[in-house]
Amino acid sequence: MKALIVYVSLHHQNTERIAREMAAAIGADCKRPEEVDRDSVASYDLIGLGSGIYYSSHHRDLLNFVNGLDRLLRHKRTFIFSTSGFEELVFHQALKERLAAHGAEIVGEFKCGGWNTYGPFEMGGGLQQGRPDRMDLRNASDFALELVRSLEQGSRGRLRGGLLSEQGDEREDQLGGDPPD
Ligand SMILES: Cc1cc2nc3c(=O)[nH]c(=O)nc-3n(C[C@H](O)[C@H](O)[C@H](O)COP(=O)(O)O)c2cc1C
Q1: Under CATH, to which class is 3-174 assigned?
Q2: How confident is the model at residue 6 (pLDDT cuts 50, 70, 90)?
Q3: Hey, is 79 helix, strand or coil?
Q4: What does the domain layout of the chain look like in residue ranges?
Q5: Ligand 1 contacts CB of residue 116 (under 6 A)
Q6: pLDDT higher than threshold 80 for residue 173
Q7: Is the C-beta atom of 84 inside 6 A of ligand 1?
Q8: Across the strands, what pairs with 175?
Q9: What is the pLDDT of residue 97?
């Protein structure tokens, strides 16, 4: 499966680390929007799109990149990823809507914490210090591998709901969270 990962990562290169980890796991090309040759886009079976979260959505350069691809995204399989201070899935909404408007299929989502020293968070060294950490990077590569494996096996349905929450649970387990009742 030929895959492309496109990322914008400006604050602390948090998302770039996630993007590169995913790309290495699945042998994807890994580029910033300005490095992507539009003519090459049709040749990819899967496109991952991610950035840090800025004011509750993906960075505008990534959103504009998606708009610029327009019809090239029709029926294209895509996945979304992000790093952020608060790790909310709702931050993906604006990018999701744009992808849907261009007819893309969203087959997976990944999010994790990212070191944030913006504004008041600078005090005390910032929010989410050390993130993404080793476990985040492993979760990112596992996510990408599992996504590609599932797509190759044709089991897309399972990915829609399951993959992200499974990874969240795994992190809780490894951090020694309370066992389920
Ligand atoms: C200008 C600015 C705005 C941000 N807005 C949010 C936000 O709305 N919600 C959030 O959870 N994190 C926010 N963050 C934190 C970033 O999403 C987080 O640090 C992210 O990992 C940065 O990714 P990057 O290093 O790849 O750019 C913001 C950071 C900056 C610099």
Answers
A1: alpha beta
A2: very high
A3: strand
A4: 3-174
A5: yes
A6: no
A7: yes
A8: none
A9: 97
Within 10 angstroms of residue 145's Cβ, the number of other Cβ atoms is 13
Give 117's DSSP letter: -
φ/ψ region of 31 (left if φ > 0, alpha if ψ in -120 to 50, else beta) reads: beta
Site to probe by mutation for ligand 1, drawn from 8, 11, 111, 128 as the one with most ligand atoms within 8 Å of Cβ, is 11
pLDDT, tens digit, 9 for 90 and up, residues 109-159: 999 999 999 988 888 889 999 999 999 999 999 999 999 999 998 855 444
Structure tokens at 114: 């990212």
Residue holding tokens 């893309």? 104
Of residues 30, 28, 2, the one with CA closest to residue 17: 30
* Atom 1 of ligand 1, residue of closest alpha carbon: 54
Rounded to the nearest whole angstrom, what is the distance from the C-alpha of residue 167 to the centroid of ligand 1? 21
Q: What atom in ligand 1 is closest to the CA of residue 8?
A: 26
Distance CA 22, CA 175 (A): 22
pTM: 0.89
* H or E, element range at 77: strand 77-84
Strands 3-8 and 29-31: parallel
Ligand 1 contact, 141 CB (< 6 A): no
Query: From the alpha carbon of 116, which atom of ligand 1 is closest?
Result: 19
What pLDDT is stored for residue 168 in this prediction? Answer: 43
Q: Which of 13, 22, 54, 137 to mutate to test the pocket of ligand 1 (most atoms within 8 A of CB)?
A: 54
